[in-house]
Design brief:
single chain; alpha/beta; globular
């Protein structure tokens, strides 16, 4: 069977050679000239041209055309991969990608189509694109975010469609049954960009940061972070839950206490602000499903409730958002065999906003409400930076000022709930108004979905954020971080630590894996002071060099903190640095054994219990948790 990495790279090369030829047949050239299309390509040209012209206004002719080629290529792969996984897991009635000797070496759907329309045998690809368009239309009712009329949802030429399907079928069938197949496809698909970026030695900006820092988080790290945030949150509401046996949290069972009032499960919000291919959200889904079952919810409704109310994701890269949506859909369908349309709260910041007649109509609807007019202006002006900074965009300060203005103008009838509802209603009005705008509607709708996620607070925020040292940034990117995240500008991940805490509601949990550099280096002193003075440290797994990511040698650590003033509670520190470098299994086992030791009331030589205020005794507040009290007192 074909190697997964090599096959995904080959598929990408096939698609990115095909789409330029398709554009040429449509009369669309890379220098911005538009010629007469080839015979039979008139309708396709009329569909594609407005999309490229809309992107041209932001990117220029050549880059707009390149963007179309890149995004159409990935969208096609994503759609075909989605079909393949559904077929492998028995989630679809017949095959569209998987071929069989019993159906003449074709998929079941393609075989039936040719039996019904035999003249298609003489067409290029024997009508394969027609077969796929039909199933895409059907699936758009269940998964519109992937299979609807996306601005880049155009199939390649039929011969390349057949070639890509053959490459997909060359991959070992067992791979399609694995939960992490989608994540690895995303990782391998972007290898070309990462290598080019590394070889170029160019400075990094918003256009390529997601390639430079992309690392697939292994499942055991994901489990530790989610168990110690979402799992901890749940056990603090229900300390007698049998789920304690499955949640790897370093607390003895008899020490569990009811520390927060129970809330409806559908009110718990979990955000991954740099979601990649969605592995944090996928495990959160699994854990939430067990929680819903334990609380007696209807099993047939659980998947819909989780996707609609609990899980939220943001990424700079639209490809990542697509894959997260696909992964969550497949997870939901695997657990809930009923076909249904799920509401997903996953968005990318890959959009740009332009005024339109439809937006003018929304403004007119609220023309007598100056606060709402200000709200629309605020969203429009702030979201113009979204494609550059993604979830680092923080408009909470401006929104608070608007809320105060509203409160002063409506003293008698103002309420927090009513104003929050007004904000969401205005965003929904804008989405509804622009939904039929082929040129800009999808971008504007995406922007409003992004804004909805920005203005919410979350009970749990979990992430493996991008890592990028300031020395590798462009001057413009450095200035942005310094202006908006002073004290956290040394590395992009440090800004994300601050932003994740800002996303969290009071008493909420933040869990992240990042480089360890902020623990000791002097240029991160302000970051350390903020962590220690504004938050409560809960759990800290210090991995050190290697042993976590398969494709990168990085010094890492996991931090879990509660968004609450520091108290007298001690934090657990797992010192995993000394375990064999470059061997994930060793660090993984050491972490698990350390957690088990604490759960069983036993001592563990590499687990340290320390109050965070002890760090303040040493100049610069370094996180040196392993030194003795006697040495600490010398300072």
């Amino acid at each position: 069977m074909a190697d997964l990495e090599k096959t995904i790279i080959q598929i990408r090369e096939t698609l990115e050679k095909s789409y330029p030829l398709l554009l040429k047949q449509c009369g669309i050239t890379e220098n911005g000239d538009y010629r007469e299309p080839a015979t039979g390509f008139e309708d396709l040209r009329n569909q594609i041209l407005p999309i490229i012209q809309a992107d041209e206004k932001q990117l220029g002719a050549k880059e707009a055309r390149n963007k179309f080629v890149q995004e159409a290529s990935f969208t096609t792969l994503n759609r075909l991969v989605g079909l393949k996984v559904m077929e492998a897991r028995g989630l679809i009635e017949r095959t569209y990608v998987t071929k069989s000797i019993d159906t003449g070496g074709k998929s079941e759907a393609h075989y039936l189509y040719l039996s019904r329309i035999p003249q298609a045998n003489s067409e290029p690809g024997q009508g394969i694109n027609t077969v796929l368009r039909e199933v895409f239309q059907t699936l758009s009712q269940e998964l519109p975010q992937l299979y609807n009329g996306s601005r880049y949802g155009f199939l390649p030429r039929p011969s390349e469609t057949v070639a890509v399907i053959d490459l997909i079928n060359s991959i070992d069938p067992n791979e399609w049954l694995k939960d992490d197949i989608i994540g690895w496809i995303y990782q391998y698909y972007n290898i070309a960009e990462r290598r080019l970026l590394k070889d170029s030695k160019a400075k990094i900006d918003q256009s390529n940061v997601h390639y430079q820092s992309q690392q697939y988080t292994p499942s055991w790290v994901v489990k530790h972070i989610v168990d110690n945030t979402l799992g901890r949150y749940y056990l603090e509401m229900y300390p007698n839950s049998p789920l304690y046996d499955e949640i790897e949290i370093p607390i003895q069972k008899e020490n569990l206490r009811k520390e927060r009032e129970p809330k409806k499960l559908e009110e718990i919000k979990i955000l991954d602000p740099a979601c990649g291919s969605g592995n944090f959200l996928l495990y959160s889904f699994e854990l939430l499903q067990k929680m819903y079952l334990e609380r007696g919810y209807d099993p047939g409704e659980i998947s819909s409730l989780i996707l609609k109310h609990n899980l939220f994701g943001i990424d700079l890269d639209d490809r990542a958002a697509q894959l997260t949506i696909l992964s969550l859909y497949l997870k939901a369908r695997t657990l809930d065999r009923h076909k249904r349309k799920y509401t997903m709260n996953v968005v990318s910041a890959d959009f740009h906003l332009s005024d339109s007649l439809e937006l003018t109509a929304v403004r007119n609807k609220y023309r007598n409400d100056t606060t709402v007019q200000d709200f629309i202006d605020l969203i429009w002006s702030q979201l113009k930076d979204a494609s550059a900074i993604g979830s680092l965009l923080d408009i909470t300060g401006e929104l608070e000022r608007l809320k105060e203005k509203r409160k002063k103008s409506d003293v008698m009838f103002f309420s927090e709930e009513a104003w929050s509802e007004t904000e969401i209603n205005v965003l929904e009005d804008i989405k509804g108004a622009v939904s039929s705008n082929r040129e800009y509607g999808e971008y504007i709708e995406q922007g409003m979905n992004f804004a909805e996620l920005l203005i919410q607070k979350y009970d749990v925020v979990i992430a493996n954020p991008p890592y990028l040292d300031s020395s590798d940034m462009t001057d413009e990117y450095k200035k942005f971080l310094k202006d908006r995240f002073k004290g956290f500008e040394k590395n992009l991940y440090a800004a994300f630590i601050k932003r994740c805490a800002d996303f969290a509601d009071k008493g909420g949990y933040v869990g992240m894996i990042t480089p360890q550099t902020y623990m000791f280096i002097s240029s991160y002193e302000e970051t350390r002071k903020w962590i220690l003075n504004k938050n409560q440290l809960v759990d800290f797994a210090h991995f050190g060099l290697g042993g976590v990511f398969s494709e990168a040698l990085v010094d890492t650590a996991v931090i879990v903190l509660e968004k609450a003033p520091p108290n007298s509670d001690d934090c657990l520190f797992f010192n995993l640095v000394k375990f064999e470098r470059g061997n994930a299994k060793t660090k993984r086992e050491a972490l698990r054994e350390g957690v088990e030791a604490i759960r069983n009331g036993k001592e563990c030589p590499y687990v340290h219990l320390l109050n965070q205020n002890e760090f303040k005794k040493i100049p610069g507040y370094p996180f040196v948790y392993w030194i003795s009290d006697r040495i600490r007192e010398l300072f």
